[in-house]
Amino acid sequence: MCGIVGILGTEPVATRLVDALKRLEYRGYDSAGVATLEAGRLDRRRAEGKLQNLEARLSDAPLQGHTGIGHTRWATHGAPTETNAHPHMTEQVSVVHNGIIENFRELREELTGEGAAFATETDTEVIAHLITRELKAGHDPVRAVFNTLRRLEGAFALAIIFGGYDDLMIAARQGSPLAIGFGEGEMYLGSDAIALAPFTDTISYLEDGDWAVITRDGLAVRNREGKAVERPVQKSVASALLVDKGNHRHFMAKEIHEQPEVISHTLANYVDFAAGRVQLPDLPFDFADLPRLTISACGTAAYAGLVAKYWFERYARLHVEIDIASEFRYREAPLEPGGLALFVSQSGETADTLAALRYCREQEQHTVSIVNVRESTIARESHAMLPTLAGPEIGVASTKAFTCQLTVLACLAIAAGKARGHVSESQEAELIAALTEVPRHISSILRDEARYEVLAHPLAKARDVLYLGRGISFPLALEGALKLKEISYIHAEGYAAGELKHGPIALIDETVPVIVIAPRDNLFDKTVSNMQEVAARDGRIVLVTDAHEGEAGCPVMDTIRVPTAHAFTNPLIYAVPVQLIAYHTAVLMGTDVDQPRNLAKSVTVE
Ligand code: F6R
Q: Do 521 and 570 contact (CB within 8 A), yes or no?
């Protein structure tokens, strides 16, 4: 999604704006731009594609202003061209925007009717023209923005600077997050604290509906009604070193390799290892009384939720409903008051997941979120928040956040099982011991990484790839297919192994690799039968398993052997081969692994 930065500085800001934008690259974008104010005059540079194109523009024609805004655009309205890139400008005002202005069509017609000339296809440009109209009517910038905000519908974040006003920037937040940073005689603005980490760790977050008038001396925040409000100033934990890939070629590789460590951190947050007990923060409900559990999330986070459904049903005998948030939010599902609703989100800003959360609050559910960004909107709006301790995830494809989500969900399922009388103390200790071994098992998988480079060769030639899994391995098949398609652009689908003969088997021939996730659990023999059906049709099987040589009983193209672990923790362990298969195939194909085309890291629009 789009990234916003702004600086009221004491020296030229264009280079620093681009540096801050680099720290937002992980969100996904397809064009970028900066505008600064020099001797009272607004000027901008924009470029299609990556930030180095913008840097080239700036080196040909530098901007010297000490006041500036910058933007990485993830196209929604209009193609990712230079013309449509932000900042959008008139002589009086320059605007960057994240989100969608839903009523932009009627506003554009209204403004065009009054003689405004539009240069772009974007929804954002209406904001520049609306503010300009207000300024021309004699209002000062603060009143002009207030009047404009009242006309805008949708979810958005804005940063605005004004011709002739060197010590002024106005920011507004309605739905999309914004962080304001405090420096020595300087002020900063960013879509998140990560962007601002090299400048300051002193941050204030705008609340939904807030808008802030920022000068070098500080800021004045007002709410939707224009009333002055105070927002706490806090120390951010975002680190200035975040954009470092270490020795890895991609952030995704670094994040895959961080998993043993971040799973350990996350586990340590929820487990008393010495006592062999799960320890959760105080939750405003008792698992024993819950009529049911509703889980809602998007993409990979939804697959973490699907794994959890198997855990909660098996270990806590709790009825679980799970749906992707974009469907759940409009289904008008009847929910008995007093139920528990869980929301899983790395960013904590995903628009559909947030809407599902708000629906569940209206339906009198206890809401708990599992998020990686503690200050996020989903975290703040839920009754309780359980953080994953994955650290910032920069690669667009989720890896370490997924396994940390699974770690938290596993602890929650154990706690639920215990409270509901289905998990004894000794079982709890056994399950925790199993979780404690996960980082070690993952490290041993990572030591064997070279073999995924070999496997990537046949996979990279495939047009279609199928993933099969049964029981708790089914969500892993879905995750494997998602990971492969999003970063390698090879068409891939995940199926429940038992569903194969109800349709997908028609696709099988000698050109289609079939990746089978088959731990040697109670369903292994069933999955083997499905594999044999594939083999009988010349399908090329890649078996991911801890079973011994020959146990599959049919010819396979390749076997990825993983350590034998407790069945409870298999989803965490099998997640890693699935990530490595996708990663190495994509690397071989030469795609942009960390920022795959068309994708955004934080999906703040529906
Ligand atoms: C896939 C991926 C996405 C996200 C989804 C939800 O690799 O990363 O499918 O899982 O967009 O995002 P969050 O977790 O931020 O709500």
A: yes
Ligand 1: which of 256, 298, 307 to mutate, judged by most atoms within 8 Å of the beta carbon? Answer: 298
Q: List C-alpha distances in Å: 2 to 156, 214, 272, 518.
A: 10, 21, 40, 39
Which is catalytic among the residues 2, 298, 360, 411? Answer: 2
Query: CA-CA distance, 379 to 367, in Å (whole number)?
Result: 10
DSSP string, 10-56: SS--HHHHHHHHHTTGGG--SEEEEEEEETTEEEEEEEESSHHHHHH
Whole-number percent of the chain with pLDDT over 70 = 98
DSSP letter, residue 582? H
Instruction: Record the tokens describing residue 200, joined without a space.
Output: 């300051």
Residue 227 annotated as catalytic: no
Cα-to-centroid distance, 336 and ligand 1 (Å): 28
Q: Which two tokens stand for residue 553?
A: 């009983």
> How far apart, in whole angstroms, are the C-alpha atoms of residue 497 and residue 528?
9
CA 345 – ligand 1 centroid, Å: 7
Per residue in 53-78, pLDDT (tens digit) is: 999 999 999 999 999 999 999 887 88
Query: Measured between alpha carbons, how far is 66 from 341 in angstroms, rounded to an integer?
Result: 47
Of 309, 400, 485, 601, catalytic: 601
Residue type, 521: D
* Exposure on the CB side of residue 353, measured as CA atoms within 13 A: 33
Question: Does the beta carbon of 397 sit less than 6 angstroms from any atom of ligand 1?
Answer: yes
Cα–Cα distances (Å) from 26 to 99, 172, 174, 185, 488, in that order, read 17, 22, 22, 29, 17
Position of tokens 């492969």?
484
Phi–psi pair at 540, nearest 5 degrees: -100, 105
Q: How far apart are alpha carbons 29 and 601 in whole angstroms?
A: 9
